[in-house]
Amino acid sequence: MSRIGQGSDTHTRAVDIGDEEFHWDFSKEMSYGQYLCLDRLLDCQKPRSSQHDEMLFITIHQASELWMKLIVFELCAALRCVREDRLGPAFKTLARVAGIQRQLIQSWSVLATLTPTDYSSFRDALGHSSGFQSYQYRLIEFLLGNKNRRMIEVHRNDPAVYVRLEQVLERPSLYDETLRLLDRRGLRLPSAKIERDWSEPYEADAAVEAAWQSVYHNVEDHWDLYELAEKLVDLEHAFQCWRFEHMKTVERIIGFKRGTGGSSGVGYLKKVLDLRFFPELWTVRTRL
């Protein structure tokens, strides 16, 4: 038996591609780079300082925005499916969102390689720009049900973004559509929960908790609603993990300094940890 270093040629020669049928000439065909618009995508990383670590900061946030774009796309599809009582496809899209969330949570560990000294070397280049101004993050929160009209004011100078946020703000969220589905399935809910001003924050209701309790106590009769409930809990749990990792990464890098966008920084991020999208799905657990 040959061993590496004793006559073996393992990993010492180029892979033989003589029998492969690769396409080499793309003068008249679309290439991988053209399909993905890589010329534009890879030209978007433009550090504003000469500091090495700013490239990491920009790349992490741009990649996160791409993942959030896909989350918005999938949540809109899931919302339509729930509205149309097509829960099978909704489960698939929500499972995909959960996979994307795991990617986003992992990204904080990469950003955490940025030390306080590294970040302070280019922080001034950010001006007042901040993740707080991410309109895609705001779309996700609105789609899940965390409505707050004041949050869209920071986008008033961008009419197209402002209108899109306003439209999502004023439509039923994924949880609103879920509750309307419960009502259509015979788990009667108060009229104020199925027809209301959708732009207002959702408030928990004992009748909604009772409806979910019925679902959990009669799983065989409500299997798809039970599965939908657990998919929503998975989604919110992952969102809370993302928020927590965000807060701890910020604390690790800047301590308790004020954020570039004007927030209290870690203090603000700790406050949002208490927000719930689907409150009764959590409180019902105490009653089961």
Account of the protein in words:
- The chain has 288 residues and is mainly α.
- Helices cover 57% and strands 0% of the residues.
- Helix 3 packs antiparallel against helix 4 (87-111), helix 3 packs parallel to helix 8 and helix 11 runs antiparallel to helix 12.
- The mean pLDDT is 93.
Summarize the structure.
It contains 13 helices and no strands. With 288 residues, the chain is mostly helical.
Structural class: mainly alpha
Number of strands: 0
Largest β sheet strand count, sense and barrel closure:
none
Name the poorly predicted regions.
none
Number of helices: 13
SSE order: HHHHHHHHHHHHH
* Straight-line N-to-C gap: 63 Å
Query: Average pLDDT value?
Result: 93
Q: What is the CA-based Rg, rounded?
A: 24 Å
Q: What form results from the Cα inertia axes?
A: globular
Q: What percent strand? A: under 5%
- Fraction of helical residues: 55-70%
Keywords:
single chain; 288 residues; mainly alpha; 13 helices
Strand and helix layout:
Blueprint: H1 32-35, H2 38-41, H3 54-83, H4 87-111, H5 116-120, H6 135-144, H7 159-169, H8 174-184, H9 191-194, H10 206-217, H11 223-254, H12 266-272, H13 279-287
Helix pairs in contact: 3-4, 3-6, 3-8, 4-11, 6-7, 10-13, 11-12
